[in-house]
Design goal:
Largest sheet: 5 strands, parallel
Order of helices and strands: EEHHHHHEHEHEHHEHEH
Helix content: 40-55%
Number of helices: 11
Structural class: alpha/beta
Number of strands: 7
Shape: globular
Distance between the termini: 7 Å
């Protein structure tokens, strides 16, 4: 029986209309000899509770270099262009009315969390941000943190997200239920969502 639903954030509940990739731009400014790999960098950016200025200092990039490259302006542009997908408000209200616990479990850099939270039409029961947990999906640490926060067993959670490895394979290996949100219309799974609105049908089928 499903008692809680965990959502990924971007690509699932919300989108960024004007992509500027400020963190990628910032990494490109770092010294090539000491520059971390993309994977290590992603783990730092989304796994530590750091503002972008702190990431800048950690990379050894000066604030002036970052400013001139448009890093901070790019971040501001992305934050201002965030919006919910059209069906998000309705589906969250419906799920809350059904008595389900709702949470977000997202790999996210710290500056994006508060603006995203302010967009949501309801207060979620829990927010499991990678930068607060100190681990990024599909590390089981973050799924355990979600279970602990929601006070439910893994098998009682349905994870919904658009990144197949992080939002489906990882949760399933941990013991959760998971469904892929594939807005493009194709998925490795036979059963998947093309829109969050499809959750109505999926939950009815699962009882």
């Amino acid at each position: 029986m499903i008692k809680a639903i965990l959502f990924d954030a971007f690509g699932t509940l919300a989108e960024i209309a004007e992509r500027r990739r400020p963190y990628a731009k910032l990494l490109s400014l770092a010294d090539t000899e000491s520059r971390p790999t993309d994977a290590d960098y992603a783990a730092i950016v989304m796994g530590r509770d750091w503002k972008i200025h702190e990431i800048t200092d950690w990379l050894g990039v000066t604030q002036t270099q970052a400013q001139e490259a448009g890093v901070f302006e790019g971040l501001a542009t992305e934050l201002l262009s965030m919006s919910l997908f059209p069906e998000t408000a309705e589906i969250l209200a419906h799920l809350r009315a059904c008595g389900l616990k709702l949470g977000i479990c997202s790999n996210l850099a710290q500056p994006y969390a508060a603006p995203l939270r302010s967009l949501l039409p309801i207060e979620m029961d829990e927010y499991v941000w990678s930068f607060e947990v100190g681990a990024i999906k599909p590390d089981p640490i973050i799924y355990q943190a979600a279970c602990d926060a929601l006070k439910v067993k893994p098998e009682e959670i349905l994870m919904v997200g658009d990144t197949y490895n992080a939002d489906c394979l990882g949760p399933r290996r941990f013991g959760m239920q998971a469904v892929h949100l594939a807005r493009v219309g194709h998925s490795p799974d036979r059963t998947f969502l093309k829109s969050l609105s499809d959750l109505h049908t999926l939950l009815a089928a699962r009882g």
